[in-house]
Amino acid sequence: MMKLRIKTLLAATSLLLAPLFAAAAQTAANITEFTLGNGMKIIVNEDHRAPTVAHMIWYRVGAVDERNGTTGLAHALEHMMFKGTTHLKPGEFSRRVAALGGRENAFTSRDYTAYFQQIEQSRLEAVMALEADRMANLVFDKNEFANEIRVIMEERRLRTDDQPQALLFEALNATAFAVHPYRNPIIGWMDDLEHMTVEDVKAWHDQWYAPNNATMVVSGDVQPQQVRRLAEKYFGKLKPKTLVRTRPQNEPEQKGIKRVTVKAPAENPYLMLAFKVPALRDVEKDDEALALDVLAAVLDGYDNARLGARLVRTERVANEAGASYSGVGRGPAQFILDGTPAAGTTTEQLEGRLRAEVTRIAQEGVSEEELKRVKTQLIASQVYKRDSVFGQAMEIGVMEMSGLSYRDIDRIIERLRDVTPQQVQAVAQKYFGDDALTVATLVPLPISEKPPVAPPAGLRH
């Protein structure tokens, strides 16, 4: 599981802002949207710099839609989507994309599941036909499922159970959220995987995989009319489904600090502090979410940001220290501070030092000069994510699946530029008390002498 931490891709100066904003505006102007009669949304992002295309199908269903006893279904179906249709044998989807000279994969998140191909632009029709086929005609073979669920369980062992920081992050979420489905891991709890059946996965596909729950994003050297014609040809004939969303499981108010300790083989102790904070729901109104984004960048947004400069290089109380915030999602948001204590520093001491850096901002604020430097680099990192056609498709899809719009992308950048020092200081004062905090601590155990286990065959992503 990747930790979402704001890191700039390059050192930018204020002189870069004008061309960056011009590039952002040009990107928005090249997007076309339309909807098929069955409810499937199509978004076309024209970028004619190279004869390549990123083709993505996003389903607005992920781990957040699962309930106790069924965790891991969204991810398990992602694996089964490569196991054949009434027209294709298991594995043939991937072989055909490779034969076209393309690359493909898929990923599952808390909020969505997505499938993509990157191909030469003349091959777009072929991959559209493949995706439409598995949306409608997927085969659920018991033997294929039996093999694949073992791959998924081994993936869980490899990427979570045997990775102490991932194990701690899992425990952090399970403790921070009392009822909201974000408390469950995307890959699922092992007990749920052991009891999952092929009928469970088929029911998930039948419930959620429909054109009216999907968004196609095509980014690259294409024309909107061409994409519309192909989308109508291959997806337009598919029937919509009645989508019944379960009631939201809203998180009750937290009444005090929560703590969890994980003991696992590791070289060093590790610490994570998660504070419940507002998410970004309305780009025009949610000033605090934008200020939290800037606060994370002040703490850990560039090479000389506060946490690294003070705790790691100057005072040497931490080997690493970071801050992250992502307000884009269908569920609640968290602001995370984390770090590895240096020799001679305890996790308790590092916890105090991490919180002290936020308190310093709450009490003293940030200068206009520091904020200008931070925002310049933060905005540069946002814009440079669009350097590839795939990066543009990803950003569009994430926004759409999270309840925002691709139209908000440029507006977010504009509003980040307008965040004031007073707004950053205000969120530092408001959201970092004990009643919003969950602390997760990794206690290292001796590392086994056993050689590392090779990734299981069939591990895709």
From TrEMBL:
Q: Any keyword Acyltransferase?
A: no
> Which segment of the chain is annotated as a signal peptide?
1-24
Say which species the protein is native to: Oxalicibacterium flavum
Keyword tags: Hydrolase, Protease, Signal
Name the family the entry cites. Belongs to the peptidase M16 family.
Q: Which GO terms describe its molecular function?
A: metal ion binding; peptidase activity
Can you give the residue ranges of the Peptidase M16 C-terminal domain?
Answer: 196-378
GO biological process per UniProt: proteolysis
Q: Which InterPro entries match?
A: Metalloenz_LuxS/M16 (IPR011249), MPP/UQCRC_Complex (IPR050361), Pept_M16_N (IPR011765), Peptidase_M16_C (IPR007863)
Q: Where would you find the membrane-spanning parts of this chain? A: none
Query: What is the recorded name of this protein?
Result: Zinc protease
Can you give the residue ranges of the Peptidase M16 N-terminal domain?
42-187
